[in-house]
């Protein structure tokens, strides 16, 4: 017998989170956005910075996680139920949603989407979670049943948030952006790679009163100074600004700065199979060599948190010792380097060319030189870096940038590229998998001690060092209102409007 939470869709709450702006809606107008990363339609099932502005405009998810409560909110799902042992999960979907081609949404599209999550080429961070399911079946025209050997919920809601529902008839068009078809409030119209993206209103949306804008224009601006200058009349919102650029708008009555939900984390990964990083003492030394507060002060103008963890500091079981385990201690770093016999060792670093990671590298480079290592960095364009990351091949050492903060630690350990089984650190000991499995099957009071044991093991092995967490900073004009973010920081424009 099935039992559990039932949620009914309705109103703005469908799309989760607090609404920004309280003015009376004025329908019409084209919203102008600016962002630093280009769209990657072929990776729509993955967490990619360039997709965060338009993913939930063109596509709908089954549910999203509320930015204030972290609880699931229905979108295409109307209700869901879980068996008492948690191993059978049933989700029912809307019967009035249509793809932009006019074809009705069915349960088969949900099954198809979850199957695509498991395909390695689609690079979804949720693949390990979905692969753990024993079956995904359409048990009705608008009903899907998921079974697993371990409890499906609550991690299934992390899967649902990222796995926006795909049109299986046009799926192949995602590869080059020639056909990008969802059920969302806006249609994909025109994409000039590296330059711009244009969306237009979906007049046949299942919640028509939530589509107030005529369209959305997204400009890709890679230079941070140009991004900040774009706020002066060219765009209505700039997303993911650096604190250094955002600070120029403080005190400007025409521009509102927003600290969004979720966070970015900046890992420094080490390939444990590549000498000299096969020596744990050297990996630990690098953790003590990095001056995290200097990165926060110089790169992020004081905005950020020097946590060493890959998840939120308020996750059950997290301790202050874990958060601050690696702190700036160059003397301790030198001692560990000597113990590893690695004085003067070359550190070949691959750095993603997405701001602000190259600026972080400048400080990392200086810190490593100060403790007697020889860092050699190479900045790599984002798409090429993502390719290497997906393949688990980024060289001996690498600096990444990850979002997805807001998901549980039990999900992140298999979702984040730095931590999953195919991680580019090539860290795959059996004990690591055992501890992850223990956390993911822990229920109730067993969760916190399972997280402590896993976290301490990961910190000791030092295969991936988190340098800091930073909240996303956005700038918008006052008349742009009614939009929301879900708890990992993806933008939702259903209900958004331009006042005046």
TrEMBL record:
InterPro entries: SBP_5, SBP_5_dom. It is found in: Periplasm. Residues 72-399 form the Solute-binding protein family domain. It comes from the Bacteria. Belongs to the bacterial solute-binding protein 5 family. This is Solute-binding protein family 5 domain-containing protein. It comes from Devosia nitrariae.
